[in-house]
Amino acid sequence: MKYIKKTVTLLFTFFILISCKKAGADNGAANAPSNLVITATISTDGSGKVTFIATAYNAVSYDYEFGNGVIKIGGTNTTTYQYTFTGTNTFTVTVTAKSSAGLSIKKSIPVTITVAAIVPTLFWSEEFNTDGAPDPTKWGYDLGTGSNGWGNAELEYYTSRPENSIVQGGVLKINAIKENYNGSAYTSARLLSKDKFSFTYGKVEIRAKLAAGIGTWPAIWMLGSDINTNPWPACGEIDIMEHLGRTLNTIYGTLHYPGHFGGSADGTTTVIANATTEFHIYSLEWSATSIKIFVDNVLFHTTANSSSLPFNNDFFFILNVAMGGGFGGPVDPAFTNSTMEVDYIRVYK
Fold this sequence. Notes:
Blueprint: H1 2-31, E1 34-42, E2 49-57, E3 61-65, E4 71-75, E5 78-82, E6 87-98, E7 104-115, E8 122-126, E9 140-141, E10 156-158, E11 165-168, E12 171-181, E13 184-188, E14 190-192, E15 202-209, E16 216-224, E17 237-243, E18 250-256, E19 266-271, E20 280-286, E21 290-295, E22 298-304, E23 315-323, H2 325-328, E24 337-348
Parallel strand pairs: 10-13
Antiparallel strand pairs: 1-2, 2-5, 3-4, 3-6, 6-7, 8-24, 9-14, 11-12, 12-13, 12-24, 14-23, 15-20, 15-24, 16-17, 16-23, 17-18, 18-19, 20-21, 21-22
């Protein structure tokens, strides 16, 4: 009898355990997310914004995979995301709904997004529309010879005289002249926007016609505004355009920075027609990720930018026509004068 009672007790306990396990299993199944529904409301303004609403029974959190490599973990059932790929693109968006017990259900939907191209807005410009001296609120001068700090063994003496720089007929004219002046055989001008205008990142367009003659060296370029405390080349230099009279129509686009300056600078050349007889557009597109240099909207030099380079701070403009020097080379003895004309400078953001 004792044996029978003990057996009955064991069987009773076994059935209770089986019942509890079944009940637990059923309860877990009941708590699993189900009936996942995803809706996407796409902005029609070209901004790329999409609002996703996900609903599922027994779900407490939602993970979103936006189809472009971006993932959002542990979100609510509503989230807004902004796509940035310009144009019309289709992405597969996947949502995973999760229960408090860690159970999940997953579903994907396609979304087609149109992102309008960003149109840059004019940030600053110099149109050179007022005859006379260059606008003193925008331009200053480097004066003297290369011994004053810019080197290159140039032969000119830079002045602020109207003979060497003047605005006439809607253009800035920088005139290089063969004349004896303060011990130099040539005069010219070097204008700079230092301490008057500088900027970080943007698109620059400059319309110019270049000085001619063997030995001329016109340049449109930029230097880091911290040059006084962070001397060249550490401050960085962006040469949007340089031209040498001895290699007519060859345009140089160059960057100078530590490890890449002087003869080892980071640059490329391109050849155009009529650089000294017609106006062309010299432009720069500068961002935290790249620096691109163009002539007439044709890209000819690209450098990848990064936080390790000095191209993430304010820079100012320099406009000048040098004579001779280490880069300009010997000057034609028959040279008398030549002019670089700048129609405008425009900076877009």
